[in-house]
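Lab meeting notes turned into a lecture example. A postdoc, R.K., suggested we walk through two folding results consecutively so the class can see how the record format repeats. The first protein's sequence and structure tokens come next.
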Amino acid sequence: MWHLVRKHPWFFLGASLVGMGLRLWFVFRFPAVVDDSHFYANIAENWLQHGVYAVTDSGQVVPTLSRLPGYPAFLAAIFAIFGIENFRAVLLIQVLVDLGTCFLIADSARRLISDRAARAAFLLAAACPFLANYAAAALTECLEIFFTALALDLVLAGLKLRTVDPSLRSESLSSSSKHASTQATGIWFGCGLATGGAILLRPDGGILLAAIGGYLLILLFRCCAPTVSSTISASTARPEGANPKPEARSPKPVLHGREARAILRAGLLLALGAAIPLIPWTIRNLHTLHRFQPLAPRYATDSDELVMTGFNRWVKTWMAEYVSVEEIYWNVPGDPINLTRLPKRAFDSEQQREQTAALVADYNHGRDNERDMTPELDARFAALAAARVKAAPLRYYLWLPVARIADMWLRPRTELLPPDPRWWEFNDELRPVVTVLGFGLLNLIYVGMAAAGWFRTREYFGIGLLVLFLLLRSAFLGTLENPETRYTLECYPAVIILAASMLR
């Protein structure tokens, strides 16, 4: 990548200044320090001041495992240098991290497509307001995207060594193979560490590991499969009785056994590197909390907190768009549920509407008006959810997940900005409406260019890895009850690389 920067210094300087200016504008105009930010900061503060990975509950320091330690460690390092709760320093450092992400995306496009595509990818990443917006948010997304881009870049670097990908094997291993093997060891182990870093920030970082491991398995399968298809096509192209060509007489393996071993070695190094960052966290949970918990719990809860499985399942029987996350899902427990905000698909009959209204009323007027979710209320939500799933299983298992995936990918990404989440009602003033429409159109352009880029480059080396990652992550997101658009941002390095192929 360095030679490309030296070749086009003014382009990268100008694009970097654009990217820097955009991110700083978000930092100073729309800094996002939300409830989760303060929760992470509380853990970091206790870690620094008391040496305990804990939260403050009613004035007491209580050990926690509800959040993975990646982001609290990042905050603790910054707070130790710039002062406790100095979120301005956090956001400014994230700006630099996000610019580093732009270079990683460009390097991946260079390896995968061309130098011209690398420049296009850098410009698309630097000018992307969605990445810039979350660089100005004290949340895990900025670092998660960085480690995702780093892992993908290292995978492509490892495959480029011509010891793994069959489409690149045009010559036998030369005397430099030992050096290439040593270099591959560092690259694949580094890829594992980058993947482990993503997992240490968010549990769903494991999807990245699954995508890379799955791609290696595909290569291993291709390694063991004979080229039967080429033989069949060659034989059908010749008239009957014709002598076969010498090379078509006996199918040969796509890869040599040495290269197959390289795939297995890459996979082992990847798994080892991904596991190492999680070992201290797992040991700490065993020692301090007596629980085997290598990741964070599914609903980010501690052992003394109620897991609202019934309520969450009920939500999944009708949730399809982000606006309901803000208006209903985030309110429980603690705030009332506004029954009028439930969509019509939340009720299958008038009787079920009355049953739901009674249940919501009991929650809204709970003990001492605290609006706690009790086990009894959660069980009633579970029973209601079970009846709805039994009545329409396809809706629960297929149509609603597809709708949630579509909403996460296509919704205007303005959740951290002032516009009303019910943007389609056009109740805002002109400027927020224009912002929503502009962000929505821009998101469609990025996604549309990525789809078109995949169609043009689907035979390129490494494209399958990006597509597999996008498919696996989208499928996983469909299983969640809360369709938040930020969950697809980790896909944007792949999206931008594919989009840049249109400008190669």
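The second example is placed directly after the first for contrast:
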Amino acid sequence: MLKLLSLLPIASWQCRTLPCNPFAPAMARDAVNYDGPLDAVHASAFPFTFPILCGLRLARRRGVPFYLTPFLHLGDPDDPRDPTRRQYTSRPMRWLLTQADAVFVQTQQERAAVVAMGVPESRVVLQGLGVEPRECTGGDRITARQAWGLAPDEFIVGHLANASVEKGTVDLLRAASMAWAKGHRFRVLLAGPVMTNFERFWNGFLPQDRVIRLGEIRDDQKQDFFAAIDLFALPSRTDSFGLVLLEAWANGKPNLVYRAGGPGELVRDGVDGVRVPCGDLPRLAEELSRLAGDPEGCHRLGRQGLARIDEFRWAEKLAIVRERMMRT
């Protein structure tokens, strides 16, 4: 029903009816009726246009600034018809961007995309994300490996994300399987909630014994996760930044990513990690094999990533937001 209703070519109406959205009439009602203290409204994130529209209506009714953090997923830069980019830059989302008094973006690539969609440059604020090393470091490598059945000298590739096609979990395991078939030795440690499309893939995946699935993990387990691995892999097409990449660097671990979205801009190829063209499974398998066979080179990349952490402190990132909101 929502899909049919969304075909009406009115941007504000499409914001209400995109089928990927929650449909919550009570939220819309409360946004109109709220009369408490209010200086500004901040909304996030695409593609969930229904709650963002509720925030916009509240801001307009109360006459306060409306701020938007879209977290645009721009997909494969080499594919002009990338379906992720088409979804995140569709008519209702372009319209919401132009309604905001300020749009906070995470990368230069996202900034350029927002400006190209009609938002004045003066309204676009390059923010980026931050990391607090104390929250993700200090894990016990030996104890964690023992608990998860990993040998002390094994090379471990970690992946912390929603296990799914979109986050690159399926591509990672397919590439790993290609490397294993050529005799390369490493194991993959997966952590995070599991999506349906990954479960379908997993049911037909043969070398399951080389993959450890932790499922969702607690914050203290995240510290152990990063301590236990040697390389962090996120061949995702749907990350506007990739906060977990900062957490890997904070632990001195390099990142292996697709050349897409935030990770493709954040990781410096051959300096603090490796970038691979989207969907290039042979190349992804080659890099997994190369890094697993060169632990010292892997450590060197990780040390370069660790040296960058001072660029990504929450205090500085939030100061950017605070300063802009005080000016509007």
